[in-house]
Amino acid sequence: MITLDDKRLNRELQKAYKKLKRVEENMTKSDSKDMMNAHKDIGKIYVKAARRNIKPYHEDTVVKKKGKEYPIVRGQLKKSMGLWRPSRKRTTYVAGPRANAPMKQKVRQQADGWFAHFVEERPKKFGPPDPDYVKARKRAPQNRGVFDRTKRQVYKEMKVKQVRLYRQTLKKSIR
User: How do residues 145-156 score in pLDDT, each as one tens digit?
Assistant: First the structure.
């Protein structure tokens, strides 16, 4: 396996960012599409790795809130992983669990990841888990911290691809 020098990559990224700022002012529509495609390719690395790391829950679940029942189907979190553009004004993409509620996205019901923050870490407003409940639990929370683990796993790969794609895009747009 090849190990990479993180400082060198950061220096190269900083140089690329400076050039990008200069180019961004004169960026044509095709250049911005190239940049969006680069960001999309980088984000896909994270999405694929997260889908590999997420294990389906052992049963379907129902969350009750204010008298309504919200079903959570096995594998729903894995299906909710994806990319989206938070703003049409920028070329950025965000990778993670897609949800209808906070982002006003059109995600089908079986792929709505609105509950991802419960899986990642227990919300503080619910307080620490009851130790007796934790001991009596049949299974450990297998997906706890899955997003942070995935970020650590693919960080180097994403950074290398980012440098490579930025160089390609800059070469095209500077001409």
Answer: 888 899 999 999
* pLDDT beneath 70: ranges in the chain: 1-5, 21-30, 101-105, 117, 120-130, 133-140, 173-175
Write the DSSP string, the chain.
Answer: -----HHHHHHHHHHHHHHHHHHHHT--HHHHHHHHHHHHHHHHHHHHHHHHHPPPPSS-EEEEETTEEEEE-TTHHHHHEEEE-S-TTS---EEEE--HHHH-----GGG--TTHHHHHS--GGG-SPPHHHHHH-SS--TTTTHHHHHHHHHHHHHHHHHHHHHHHHHHHHH-
User: Facing residues of 81 across strands?
Assistant: 97
- Give residue limits of the domains in the chain: 32-174
What's the mean pLDDT when you consider all of the chain?
Answer: 78
